[in-house]
Amino acid sequence: MKKIIILLIVISLLGLGCTTQDATDQGEQVPVNGEDNQSDEDYQPDEDVNGEDNVSEADETELEEYTPQEYRILLKNYNAIPRSLDINRTDTVIWRNEQSDPKRFFTIKSEEGLWDDQKLAFGKTFRYTFNETGQFKAYVPPWNGMNVTITVK
């Protein structure tokens, strides 16, 4: 009987350890320009996967007044953190695979076909600059917790 009770306590403690949340999971949207929670040696942004600059030409007077921001979406514990973003046109979103236990490849897809499917290994990133206004959805099949809605103003 004691073995069963001890086993139940161990399983409960393990379950609690799997339910921790990042601070960014609280609905915060954190621009990453000028601030970084990781050391410089830890984070090295990848170049555009397609080798192209995906920034379209825009009205220069409008862009002179606004400095584009970068936003990070972490793929961790089979969740996207945060799950939604409100950004401005010409802002960039960076997805980073931080699924470490177990390490997995994730494929990021655009529901609207904005980019080709992107496979990310652990620690790798994919960045996309949004140049059109609207609501866009990205997903990582088959994990629904990794669906992201990005609203571009």
TrEMBL record:
From the record, what ranges are coiled-coil? Answer: none
Q: Where is the composition biased (Acidic residues)?
A: 37-64
Q: Where is this region: Disordered?
A: 24-64
What PROSITE patterns does the record tag this protein with?
Answer: PROKAR_LIPOPROTEIN
Q: Which InterPro entries match?
A: Cupredoxin, ET_Amicyanin
Name of protein: Blue (Type 1) copper domain protein
Q: Which organism is it from?
A: Methanohalophilus mahii (strain ATCC 35705 / DSM 5219 / SLP)
